[in-house]
Structure formats: C-alpha cells, structure tokens
Amino acid sequence: MQRYFVAADQFTETQVRLTGEDAHHAARVMRMKPGDKFIVSDGAARTAIAEVKDASATLVEADIVEQLSMDSEPLWSVTIAQSLPKGDKMELVIQKGTEIGAYAFAPFQSERMIVQYDGKKEAKRLERWSKIAKEAAEQSHRNRVPVIEQVQSWRELMQGIKNYDLVLFCYEREGDAAHGKGIRTAVQEWILPSERSGKQTSPANIMLIVGPEGGFTDREAAEAETTGAVLVGLGKRILRTETAGIVGLTCLLYESGEMGGA
Amino acid sequence: MQRYFVAADQFTETQVRLTGEDAHHAARVMRMKPGDKFIVSDGAARTAIAEVKDASATLVEADIVEQLSMDSEPLWSVTIAQSLPKGDKMELVIQKGTEIGAYAFAPFQSERMIVQYDGKKEAKRLERWSKIAKEAAEQSHRNRVPVIEQVQSWRELMQGIKNYDLVLFCYEREGDAAHGKGIRTAVQEWILPSERSGKQTSPANIMLIVGPEGGFTDREAAEAETTGAVLVGLGKRILRTETAGIVGLTCLLYESGEMGGA
C-alpha cells in the first residue's frame, strides 16, 4: 500500500488531506479514486490507513479508517555524520541509510574534503536531501523521516560528540587494516554487561562518523578520540566514503538485534 | 598505492606488463614514471609491488620488487544472486558488493521481474558489469575480482542450489515483516556447534538470493524452500531490491567475523 508522510495539521483523528506533490502523486501517478486506500503518517507518533473520498491533482481528501501501531523504527537512533563527498554520493548515503534505518544525517566539513563547500548552494541541497529522505522513508515503511542536519564545521562536530551515548569514528590508516577496534568490540565494551548477548533492550543515541574520499588526517583522528569518540575499522577491504556509512549502519543495527540479527 | 589486476600471462616471477586501459590509466591518468611503484595482482593467487621501468600510454613495463601475501578475501565466499533489476541498479549491487567482499554475482530471471530480458544486449552488459567489478576490486584492495555469471533462468538457479553449503532466500510477505528467520538464526542453525560463538574458521560457499522490485511470488518462495534454501527476512523495514543484497552480504560477513564483527 502506498505511503505518504504529511504535516501534522493535515492529519486529524478522522481525516487527512494530501496536497502539493503528494496529491499529484496519488491522483495522477497512482490514479487513486474514491474507495482506494493508502497509509498516512505524520512522521512522528501517528500512522493510519486512509480511504479516499475525493481526489484531484491538487487535493486528495480521505477518511481515517484504521489507526496503525506498527513501529518500524530501530531501538538505536543512529546518526550518520558524513564528511561532504563529491557529486551525488550524499544522495546515495541518505537514500540507502534511510531504508536501512538511520535516525539522522549530519554532513560536516573536514581537512581532506575534496568538494568546495558553498554556503549559497546549501539551502537548495538540503531541500533536495530532505525530499530523498522523505521518499525513501515512505518506500521503506518507516514511521518517521530522518532529519538532515545543517552542514557543520569540524569544530561543531567535535562539540556535538558529548550529546551522544556512543560515537564511532571510522578510521583506516593506509596499510594498517587492523587499526582500530571492530564495531562488535566497540559495542560490547560500551553496553551494559547484562545485555552483552542477544537482542538489545535499551534505546541509545549513536553517531557514526565517516571521512571524505581522502580519509581523515591523523590529527583529526587523535582529536576525535580525545573528545570521546571510539576509533573503529570496518574490516580488511577499503570501502568508498559513500559505502562506509551504509555498511557501518547495517553492522550497528544488526548488532542491536535488527536487520535479521536477533 | 594504485592497484591493477592483470591476466596471468602478463605477470611473471620478475616482471609485469600493463596494456590497454591499464597502461593508459597508469601512464596518462596517474602519470607514472620510471621508479614509481604500484600493486599488481593476477586476481587469484599472486599479489606484488612493481616498480615502473618504462611507461607509455599503450605499454607499461615494471619489475616485481616485493611479493605480497596480504589476503583481503573473506573466509566465506558469498554469491549474490540478484533477479535482474531495472535501470542501472545492477551496477550499484556489483560495485558496492565487490567493495564489501562478494565472491560472485549471479543475475537471474524471475516471475515478477520488471525488465524485459534481452539476450542480445547480454554480452555488452556482462562486459560492463565485469569492468565495474574489476575497478571496485582494485579500489577496495581485493585480491581477486568477483565473477559475474551468465544470466540464469529460474530453473537453472534452482538447480544450482545444491552446489552451495548454505542458500539464503530473502523473502518479505506484504504486512508480515516478521516472516522468515533472521540471518543470525539461519547461520546459527547451520554452522558447527563448536563455531557458534565468535569468529568463524571454516570456509563456506553461500548464496544470497534477492528478488526483483515486485518481490518473489509465494510459489517461487515455496519452490526455493523445498529445493533447500532457507527463507530469511532482513528486518522490519522494506529494502529496495538493490539495497537488500548489499545489506544481506554485510550482515553475513559481519556474522562470520569480518566487517568489524570479530
């Protein structure tokens, strides 16, 4: 069944209105008619099945016919902090990360970043990234749309580390594949002894920090570690920047009992 | 250091020759000169450091200066069997799957496949996919290039199941997210009791079967199960077809003690 995320004020106890691109999508692309059903969510607490009363390309009105309580959100809220990559790689990180279950995305600047950071293009880019997150959340049956944070400086990223329960810093020194802990070790050292085997039961805010194409400098790694991050490696093979976040997120959620890891 | 995979006959005990696109890449893109070094591999048993003697855009001659024994290949050989997806999604599966550590890719046809299978375009497509696998293997420091198998019919795929130690069939029935075992359960039921905790030590041939955009039919799932595959789910969220193989492969290798899961 098609899913739409709508603003809370379009979604009362008994009715929902789709407007803008969502109305166009429902009426024109999906060709919905009175009696057809879709799933609607406010992206936070409420998800329901709605039945179309009236559909046009600018407004779809529907009645709520069933409240849904299914929660598809992971117990662990994982933010992928990604040093701004080249081209459209950030879009891949956001689309795939949203499907897998990321809580938020935090783009940031770092020393070896290849792209020129351009503040003017920022608003437009954030808008496009938010749209990709919304579409991926609808497609993957998420209950909420991941937040895309404003691009941070390295300093702001470091200052934010204290706000998380656990911060993993992906770091691979050239020719030293075994450098850094594995994700499993980092997690086992951090969680409560009583939860060390099997499915996790405590929520947690975790940040996974991924470097740019050229990697982090030793200075950056040292500063992150001093500030409270745990340096981790993702194995023997070298992952592209846009792959590291997707793989790290998958391993973390698998470790918590999601993704078939229960 | 730049990596190149070459045919075994270009790579003797003491010398290596780069030709074609590799020579062009080394001489023109990387601007290698006599004395510069690169890593060369025959994609199977041998990897070494070579030092350039002479470089032109059509031929680079180099001396072997050091044999390397570093093995970056996973213990478990995982083949991603992917029902042919639309557009260029297969390229993403091959590029990311190669970085993560897939052993081979086996495209196949299934009932709800959206693309029209076109035998004529086949040779050209396989050539492009092989090139993507080679480039991703070089970039991620693999010791071998994953094999891209010929496109198989559903019947051929089913007949091949008996050649693997374990076959996982990704299956999610609409509205039944908990259907199927998790990967961890499927693996635990299959491996030796002595290896049930921690890092795996026995090699294994595993196939991970992923459906098309429209999913598998109940009939296909039932036939796969009867033939010996284990039906598995990848969690509560619905993954796109091109994401399922990447995520399933990551979880499997993590479970075997790779990807930071040791």
Structure description:
2 copies of one chain form a homodimer. The first copy, chain A, is built from 7 helices and 11 strands. The first copy, chain A, has 262 residues and is an alpha/beta fold. Chain A folds into 2 domains: 3-68, Ribosomal Protein L25, Chain P; 76-255, SPOUT methyltransferase, trefoil knot domain (Alpha/beta knot, 3-Layer(aba) Sandwich). In chain A, strands 8-7-6-10-9-11 form a 6-stranded parallel sheet, sandwiched between helices. Chain A has a 5-stranded mixed sheet with strand order 1-3-4-5-2. In chain A, strand 7, helix 3 and strand 8 form a beta-alpha-beta unit. In chain A, helix 2 (89-100) packs parallel to helix 3 (119-139) and helix 2 (89-100) packs parallel to helix 7 (241-255). Chain A starts with a strand and ends in a 7-residue tail after the last helix. The model of chain A has no long low-confidence stretch (mean pLDDT 90). The interface between A and B is large, with 41 and 40 residues.
